[in-house]
Design goal:
Layout lengths: L4 E6 L2 E6 L4 E7 L2 E2 L9 H4 L7 E2 L5 E2 L3 E4 L2 E4 L8 E2 L12 E6 L2 E8 L10 E10 L2 E10 L3 E2 L3 E2 L2 E2 L13 E4 L1 E5 L12 E2 L11 E2 H5 L4 H6 L3 E6 L5 E8 L2 E7 L3 E5 L22 E6 L14 E2 L5 E10 L1
Antiparallel strand pairs: 1-2, 2-3, 3-4, 5-15, 6-9, 7-8, 10-11, 11-12, 12-13, 13-27, 14-26, 16-25, 17-20, 17-22, 18-19, 18-21, 21-24, 22-23, 23-27, 24-25
Length: about 325
C-alpha cells in the first residue's frame, strides 16, 4: 500500500498513524488527544524529533557509537556527543515504512534495513503492528536477520493525559514497577551499574507527582535535565511496568521487555507545534519507552539484545487507558 497515513477507530478511541517512522500522530480518547504530535504532517519528513515514532535499529544509546559482536567491531553513525542515539544518524524514525495491511482496527508496517545500515551488521526485516480496542493500544514488533546483529525496538510517544498542548506534565503522578535503575555517565550512556532505587528520586514504586520528583537535587537528574533513565523492570514476561495518572485518566503500560526508559521531555523549546496549535515547552509530555537496556551490546552484565539468523525478535507493548 502507498498510503502515508492511516486512522484506526474503536469504541471511544481514535489512533492516527503516519508511515514516516511508523509513528503515532494522534491518540484521541473521548475527544482528548493525549499524544504529542506534529500539527503539520510534513514535519515527520523534515524534523521528526522522534514524536510517536518507531525507534530502531537500536533504541536509546550505544556508547562510543561502536560495539563488538562475535569478535568483530562495528562502528555506528554517531549522532549525539560521539554516541549513537536511537539508531544513528538516520534511524527507523526517519524512514518511510511500508503499510502492509489495514483490517479490523489493526495496521501493520514493515521496513527493510540493509546490511551495514548506519553500521549495523545484517539485513534486518522489521514489522510493527498497531491493534486498537476499546481502551487499549497494542504494539507488536518482529524482526529477523541474515547475520548476527543487535536489535532494540520501541515506540517514542510522548503522553500528556490532560491533552497535547495543555502545558507541562508536572502534576501527573507516575509509578514504575522497578526496584533498580541503570545510572548514566555525563553523556547519559549507562555506566554498567545497576543501582537500587531505595532512597533516591528513582524510587517510583508508589505513585509520585512528577513535579516533586524533578524538583529533587540529584546528580542523575541534573545530568538528564530531569528523568531520562532506564528502569530495571521487576519480573519477566508480559506485566505492567508503569502507570501514569492525571485527574480521572490513567495510562497503564504493559510490556515483556526488561527495561523502560522514562523521559520527561526537557528538550521541548516551543519550536514544535502540535495539532491543537499549541507550541510544546519543556515537559510537555512524558515518554515511557519499553526496551532492552541501553548500551547492552557493550555491557556484558545487561540482558542480551543480540539477534541471530533463524531467530525472530518479538516484543509487545500495551497501553491501557481509562477515564
Amino acid at each position: 500500500m502507498t498510503r502515508t497515513t492511516v486512522e484506526l477507530r474503536s469504541e471511544g478511541i481514535v489512533l492516527e498513524l503516519v508511515a514516516r517512522g511508523a509513528a503515532v500522530r494522534r491518540l484521541v480518547l473521548d475527544g482528548t488527544d493525549i499524544a504529542l504530535g506534529h500539527g503539520d504532517p510534513d514535519c515527520y519528513r523534515t524534523n521528526p524529533d522522534y514524536l510517536g515514532s518507531t525507534i530502531g535499529r537500536y533504541a536509546n544509546r550505544i556508547g562510543g557509537a561502536r560495539f563488538r559482536l562475535d569478535g568483530q567491531e562495528h562502528e555506528i553513525a554517531a549522532n549525539e556527543a560521539g554516541n549513537a542515539l536511537h539508531g544513528g544518524m538516520v534511524g527507523f524514525d526517519a524512514r518511510d515504512w511500508t503499510l502492509e495491511s489495514v483490517r479490523d482496527a489493526s495496521a501493520t508496517f514493515s521496513l527493510l534495513s540493509v546490511d551495514g545500515d548506519q553500521g549495523f551488521p545484517g539485513e534486518l526485516t522489521a514489522t510493527v503492528t498497531y491493534t486498537l480496542a476499546p481502551g487499549s493500544v497494542r504494539i507488536g514488533y518482529t524482526a529477523t536477520t541474515d547475520r548476527p546483529t543487535v536489535v532494540n525496538l520501541t515506540n517514542h510517544t510522548y503522553f500528556n493525559l490532560d491533552g497535547e498542548g495543555r502545558g507541562p506534565i508536572d502534576d501527573h503522578t507516575l509509578s514504575v514497577a522497578a526496584g533498580a535503575f541503570t545510572p548514566g555517565g555525563p553523556d547519559l550512556v549507562p555506566t554498567g551499574e545497576v543501582l537500587d532505587v531505595t532512597g533516591t528520586p528513582f524510587d517510583l514504586r508508589t505513585a509520585t507527582r512528577l513535579g516533586d520528583v524533578l524538583a529533587q537535587d540529584h546528580e542523575q537528574l541534573r545530568r538528564g535535565g530531569g528523568l531520562d533513565h532506564n528502569f530495571v523492570v521487576d519480573g519477566s514476561g508480559m506485566r505492567p511496568v508503569a502507570q501514569l495518572r492525571s485527574g480521572d485518566r490513567t495510562l497503564v503500560v504493559e510490556s515483556d521487555q526488561p527495561g523502560v526508559q522514562v523521559y520527561t521531555g526537557v528538550h521541548f523549546d516551543h519550536t514544535i507545534v502540535g495539532p491543537s496549535g499549541a507550541a510544546y515547552g519543556p515537559r510537555a509530555g512524558i515518554a515511557l519507552e519499553t526496551q532492552g537496556f541501553p548500551d547492552a551490546p557493550n555491557q556484558p552484565g545487561f540482558p542480551s539484545t543480540v539477534l541471530r539468523p533463524g531467530q525472530t525478535y518479538r516484543s509487545t507493548t500495551i497501553w491501557r487507558i481509562t477515564g
